[in-house]
Amino acid sequence: MTTVKQGKALNIKDSRILIAGAASLVGSHTADLLLKEGAREVLLLDNFSFGSMDAIAHLQNEPRIKIVRADLMRLPDLLAATEGVDGVIHLAAYMTLGFSQTPWQAVDVNIRGAQNMLEACRVNRVKKIIFASSNAVYGYGSGIKGALSEEIPFHSVGAPPAAILYGASKIMGEQLCRHYYQSAGQDYVVLRYSTVYGERQHYRAANSLYIMETYDLVRKGQAPVLPGDGKDTKHFVHVSDVARANVAALQSTATDVAVNVSGPAPITTGELVQLVLEYCKSDLKPEVRPDPPGKVRLTSGGAFHIPHDKAGEVIGWKPVVQMREGVMRLLAWREQQDS
Ligand SMILES: NC(=O)c1ccc[n+]([C@@H]2O[C@H](COP(=O)([O-])OP(=O)(O)OC[C@H]3O[C@@H](n4cnc5c(N)ncnc54)[C@H](O)[C@@H]3O)[C@@H](O)[C@H]2O)c1
């Protein structure tokens, strides 16, 4: 049984919640859920550098929504935005592909941006911050096998630099949260999401991109590509389950803790391709073809899974969307975009 430190819990109905990096996949679904749970106000902060209004267009006329165009790199923006706010969900960040393309901005936003937000929360006495971390804090590469529970150390041997930089930036963000807890009593919960997928999927996350690329190929009548023997594991989590975890973490009394947020079970790339073929009613046969040099793809080269039992104990959360259902929902949404 995990011993959990006790801090402030938010009653969503009385609260003003700010989502930083809201104009995207996780942010838009979290905003939908906060509104459904009766939040007093939900502030959607974004600089729209790679998120888009499309992801939050359905919310813009909702009276309890306020869209805040602001940049994490500007502390005055954040000081103004967090005034009178009860809780912050800090999502804005670059992921592995971003680190491979624009490492300079990625380092700034993921580290200084997180620090700016923590500082703004401290000044404005924000009750709780939820920090979006990632299973990237366990590293990638050939040594990643078995259960990736919250205690395992960072493994970087054999992984591309962008993936290591991304993981290391999330470790920095988590430790900045701990520092603010210890020095200023700032309550926080770190949620280490596994690969997020779902409706409003973007093309910026190396692993969910694989579902989208496979779908795009099959729809063009081309054979899906398996970069290995099809036994490589991925562990996804549906975005609606991630939104539930964000809200559960705000509502819980837990503080100064990090937990995994992963889907019900891992899946192999071979099984994933079969789900896409099934959705498309296609009998194309997957082609085994190694990735071209320089392609950023996160492979484990073996079997791993990400347990989420600690999230159950700490914030009372567990995933409910099975992979088959989630992939069908994502592809139905993707198909609608073309019609
Ligand atoms: N998507 C995944 O598979 C996944 C997996 C694990 C963890 N995560 C983490 O979850 C979080 C959210 O993921 P997502 O896929 O919704 O993210 P995303 O990359 O789609 O969205 C990030 C948002 O942050 C905004 N942003 C970037 N720089 C900014 C700045 N300087 N100021 C203000 N806004 C800025 C972008 O415009 C974008 O809307 C991220 O922290 C990510 O690292 C995501």
Automatic annotation (TrEMBL):
Pfam families noted in UniProt: Epimerase
Pathway assignment: Bacterial outer membrane biogenesis; LPS O-antigen biosynthesis
Domain of life (superkingdom): Bacteria
All copies of domain NAD-dependent epimerase/dehydratase, residue ranges: 17-255
Gene3D superfamilies for this protein: NAD(P)-binding Rossmann-like Domain (3.40.50.720)
InterPro entries registered for this protein in UniProt: Epimerase_deHydtase (IPR001509), NAD(P)-bd_dom_sf (IPR036291)
Family: Belongs to the NAD(P)-dependent epimerase/dehydratase family.
Listed name of the protein: NAD-dependent epimerase/dehydratase family protein
Source organism (scientific name): Zwartia hollandica
